[in-house]
Amino acid sequence: MAITPLMPVYPRCGVRPVRGEGCHLIGEDGTRYLDMAAGIAVNALGHGHPHLVKAIAEQAATLMHVSNLYGSPQGEALAERIVANSFADTVFFTNSGTEAVECAIKTARRFHFAEGNPQRHTIITFENAFHGRTMGAISATNQSKMRDGFEPLLPGFAYAPFNDLAAALALIDDETAGFMVETIQGEGGVSVATPEFIQGLRRVCDEHGLLLILDEVQCGYGRTGKMWAYEHYGIEPDIMPIAKGIGGGFPLGACLATERAAKGMVIGTHGSTYGGNPLAMAAGQAVLDVMLEDGFLAQVEAMGERLRGGLEQLIPNHDHVFEGVRGRGLMLGLKLKAGVEPRDFVAHARDNHQLLLVAAGGNVVRILPPLVIDERHVVECLDKLATAARVYVPAADD
After folding, report:
1. 185 within 8 A of 128, measured Cβ to Cβ
2. Active site includes 244?
């Protein structure tokens, strides 16, 4: 059989969206779906948000790309705004989350090089992590499904169990540069870092001159009800890759850093052809316009609590499928009972009940709606989930 024109690395389902309206997607055949996946936490403002659409259209008609050989009033403006609303002093714009992670890794290693300690290059990461698909990003995880067939991987990484501070500290040696951890693991199963864990990593970094990289590609940008997930912990990172919601659907990511952490990132140390192009910056500005409106994040928090409360009430009535709920804000995970396969349940909800969810590790189904959902969408989601669970029959083992 001949290979498909689209390289067959995704098990694509039968849903073929051609249009989006707010929190719904419309398929090629006219079927309407409630989108509780949001492009895997990307479509923060839903589909077709008028302010975002207008900003992109106007910028596309003005100037889309010039490269980073020239001054960037658009990039400077968005960077200044992100700096003003985060821990960071400086921003490097990328096209994706995995590129932001690559920049974070380079920034951390270059910091120690600039400090006169080039031997401090090892970054301690955590089991079940997902940092992207580049060679650097897959080297930063111990998941064999990401790594198999791509060896030799990059040296300079060590792995500890997530939420195990003692195990992480035991890995520190003279070559340690710092830690990189998702504040909330997404693909790994919507596992929330404990305060003791995150605060402990921050304390140890301060004590040993190490850098704390928080990967908030999925959990940042309003997803948890605060602008950044680290705000729930009362600490700040040194470096933070972000993406997904930052462009509201337009490919955009960024690596944020303090002035100290970025001391080694000077002219010639990093670059990007497309990163920070004017069209991406217009999208980023439009998303930020909406997210920084009074009451926006409070509404995300309120809808997250409403959805979580509804899920907790729903679970006992369908305990043959669901075991519990986890997560924060509008980054929620339904833990499934043993024997219920996440991809199978996601397919069942999608194909039979027009509800779009996302599978994750740890036998979890992710619920990652647009951040603009309201009470109607929460009710629709809960109704569809209840109906799907009531008639669900686990797939028979082969």
Report:
1. yes
2. yes
Q: CB count, 10 Å around CB of 302? A: 15
Q: Are 20 and 47 in contact (CB under 8 A)?
A: yes
Q: How far is CA 289 from CA 55, 76, 282, 284, 323, in A?
A: 11, 16, 10, 9, 38
Phi, then psi, of 254 in degrees rounded to 5:
-160, 150
Give the pair of three-digit tokens for residue 321: 């499928």
Enumerate the β-bridge partners of residue 20: 25
> By the 8 A CB rule, do 24 and 32 touch?
yes
DSSP 337-372: PTT--HHHHHHHHHHHH-EE-EEETTTEEEE---TT
Residue 179 is a catalytic residue: no
Among candidate residues 92, 111, 126, 130, the one labeled active-site is: 130
Catalytic residue among 92, 111, 215, 250: 215
Angle between helices 278-291 and 73-84 (to 10 degrees): 30
**Of these residues, 244, 335, 345, 384, which one is catalytic?**
244
* Crossing angle of helices 342-353 and 375-391, rounded to 10°: 110
Give me the pLDDT at residue 307, please.
Answer: 98
Q: Do you find a cis peptide bond into 152, omega within 30 degrees of 0?
A: yes
Q: For residue 22, which of 382, 380, 350 has the smallest C-alpha distance?
A: 380
Predicted confidence at residue 394, as pLDDT, reads: 81
Residues of the chain under the 50 pLDDT cut = 398
Cβ atoms 141, 175 nearer than 8 A: no
Q: pLDDT value at position 264?
A: 98
Q: How far is CA 279 from the centre of its chain?
A: 22
Per-residue pLDDT of 320-371, as tens digits, reads 999 999 999 999 999 999 999 999 999 999 999 999 999 999 999 999 999 9
Could you tell me if residue 7 is left (phi over 0), alpha (psi between -120 and 50 degrees) or otherwise beta? Answer: beta
Active-site annotation holds for 145:
no
Query: What pairs with residue 215 in β-bridges?
Result: 182
For the record, the structure tokens of 14 come out as 């039968």
Phi, psi values for residue 123, rounded to 5°: -110, 125
CB distance 185 to 8 below 8 Å: no
Q: What is the pLDDT of residues 163-180, one digit of tens each?
A: 999 999 999 999 999 999
d(CA 243, CA 316): 36
Token pair 């929460």 is found at 378
pLDDT of residue 396: 61
